[in-house]
Structure formats: structure tokens, C-alpha cells
Design goal:
By secondary structure, this protein is an alpha/beta fold. The chain has 12 helices and 14 strands.
Length: 335
């Protein structure tokens, strides 16, 4: 990796979907009747989004988006962050912009006039906290490459990208441009695979980026690991992928997580919680904790533990943005 030209002033800059989550409790029977895959994520069009919204129970609106959630966790831990994502000039766009800036995250992407509206994710939450997501990408899929400030990207120690945003063509081109800017400045690129359906559509792209060294830190869950590698055996999947990236982090829900880096390996158990309320954002906040530890030069084990602490906080309440003091939690759990 080339040497960076100067010390970064940002810890992490992220690019992702600018989404407002609309969450409501739902019985598993309702989810089945609506033809949704429990615990999965589907992209929906305008008509389907309206149909689902009409049948949802009383809902709560909270700004979301995978990379934005991760940055919210990072900022809460004390990191200096910026976000790049596209909203529309509408009420939900204003909600998103307000929320992310209120969290201490720089957000300067101009709102997009006209249609389509700001993205939203309609989340049906089962009694056990499992979330079934239906995402209308709206304006977020029209993030243009010329919206990127390459100097700002080069000024961040880590560029963080979400796989969800790889699906639309325009932001995919923007992220390729961002990777080139980060690599040109000698920075690290972190990438989260996001979901199996993304891998089905773009796994060849992801494997090519990994092979060429464009990804330094890769986040996946065990299902995504299997989908990307084609290996149903967990250890075989790790063995195939770990040598190709500087750091591989794989989460396993209640079984914790594992990280591998240059022959080193560390594990963490899932943090206990009194009750799982909503699993939305668990992986996003795990990534936040891990990246914060990594940005501070901590060990793999420390980074994993911090990730587990952040994930446990997020599943204890509705929404994918932290409500407890993550700094205090980190101090309590890790000293």
C-alpha cells in the first residue's frame, strides 16, 4: 500500500444509502401472508412500498442506512466521521440530514430535487426481535460520482462502503471512484457485504475487488461468507477468504464473531442482553465498534469485544442508532 501524503483528519468516511427506517411490530403470520421472507431484505418499488406502509401497524421513524448507522456508532464512540449519501428535497430528506448531523457526523451531499423521494426501509419486527426489511431506494440510488469530494475521501484514515449501495449503477460508479481516491492516498478501504441477495448479483465484482487488493477490511456474516466463497463449511470459507484481505471479520449472531488478520485469529462471544427487542442494525453497530478499536490501534480481540458491546446495545431497543452512551459502555466493558 502506498504511503499516505499526510496524516488524516477524519477517522472514517462512509458512503451508503441515506434511508429513513419505518419500523412496526408484526406477527410472523402477517409477514408470511404478505409474501415476505422472515428475517430477509427485499428491494421494493414505489407501489409495493405504499402497499406495505398501508398495512403496517403504528410505526416509528428513525434515520437508518447501513453505513450511516455504522458512522453513528463510530461518532458516539468518539470518532471523527463524515458521510456521503443522497437524499431528496423532501421531509424525510430533512429528517435524515438533521439526524446524522445531530450525531456529530459531517454530511454535505446536496439534496436532489424532484422525484424520486428519499429512500425508506419498511421494517416488520417479529416478537423475537427479528426484522424483515423492505427497502425502497428512492433518491439514494442516484448518488452521482461527481458528488464525491476526492480530497475529503483522501483525508480519512478509513473509507467504509456498504454492499447494499453497490446494486444501483450510479452509486456503484461513485464508490469505485472513492476506492481509487482512498487507495491513491494510501488509506484503508473497509467493505461490508450487506446481504446474500447483493452477493448473488455482484459477487463477481466483490471477489474481483478482493483479489486486486481494493478491500483491506471485509465484514460479513456467516451466510454471506458462504455465498461469496461457495463454501458451506464455515472453516473452509474462512480459509479461502482470509488470506486475501488484511482483516476479515465474520459475525455469527448469538455465537459471536471471529476475526482473522495475517495469520492471527481472535474470537468473541455475543454480549448477553436482557431481551432482544429489534435486531435492526446489529451488524452495522458491530462494524462501528470494530472499526473504532482498529482506528485506535487496538488488538483484534479488543476490536471484536467492542463490536459485540455495540451490537448488544442496538438490539436492546427499536432502531439502528445507539440510545445508550457507547463511550460509557465501552469503558465499563473493556476498561
Amino acid at each position: 500500500m502506498p504511503q499516505s501524503r499526510s496524516a488524516p483528519t477524519l477517522d472514517v468516511i462512509g458512503i451508503g444509502n441515506a434511508i429513513v427506517d419505518v419500523m412496526a411490530p408484526a406477527a410472523d403470520e402477517q409477514i408470511e401472508a404478505l409474501g415476505m421472507a422472515r428475517g430477509g431484505m427485499m428491494l421494493v418499488d414505489t407501489q409495493r412500498a405504499r402497499e406495505l406502509y398501508d398495512v403496517m401497524g403504528p410505526a416509528r421513524e428513525v434515520s437508518g442506512g447501513s453505513a450511516a448507522n455504522t458512522l453513528a456508532g463510530l461518532a458516539a464512540l468518539g470518532a471523527n466521521c463524515a458521510f456521503i449519501g443522497q437524499v431528496a428535497e423532501d421531509q424525510l430528506g430533512e429528517v435524515f440530514a438533521h439526524d446524522i448531523r445531530a450525531g456529530g457526523i459531517a454530511f454535505d451531499t446536496p439534496a436532489r430535487p424532484g422525484e424520486p423521494p428519499t429512500a425508506r426501509c419498511l421494517i416488520f419486527v417479529s416478537p423475537d426481535g427479528q426484522r424483515t426489511m423492505n427497502t425502497y431506494l428512492g433518491a439514494s440510488q442516484y448518488l452521482p460520482a461527481d458528488a464525491l469530494d476526492e480530497a475529503r475521501i483522501a483525508d480519512a484514515a478509513i473509507l467504509y462502503l456498504e454492499g447494499y449501495l453497490w446494486d444501483p449503477e450510479e452509486p456503484r460508479a461513485a464508490m469505485r471512484k472513492a476506492i481509487a481516491a482512498a487507495k491513491g492516498a494510501g488509506r484503508e478501504v473497509a467493505f461490508t457485504l450487506s446481504d446474500g441477495f447483493v452477493i448473488e448479483r455482484h459477487g463477481a465484482d466483490f471477489n474481483a475487488m478482493i483479489e486486486t487488493g481494493d478491500v483491506d477490511i471485509l465484514f460479513a456474516n456467516e451466510n454471506e461468507l458462504a455465498a461469496l466463497t461457495g463454501e458451506s463449511d464455515f472453516e473452509a470459507g474462512l480459509a479461502q477468504l482470509a488470506p486475501k484481505v488484511a482483516i476479515l471479520v465474520v459475525t455469527r449472531s448469538e455465537r459471536g464473531a471471529v476475526a482473522l488478520s495475517r495469520g492471527k485469529r481472535a474470537y468473541v462471544l455475543a454480549e448477553p442482553v436482557n431481551a432482544v427487542v429489534d435486531t435492526t442494525g446489529a451488524g452495522d453497530l458491530f462494524a462501528a465498534g470494530f472499526l473504532f478499536g482498529h482506528s485506535q490501534g487496538k488488538s483484534l480481540a479488543h476490536c471484536l469485544k467492542l463490536g459485540a458491546v455495540c451490537a448488544a446495545e442496538i438490539i436492546s431497543h427499536y432502531g439502528a442508532r445507539p440510545e445508550a452512551n457507547l463511550k460509557a459502555l465501552a469503558a465499563e466493558k473493556l476498561g
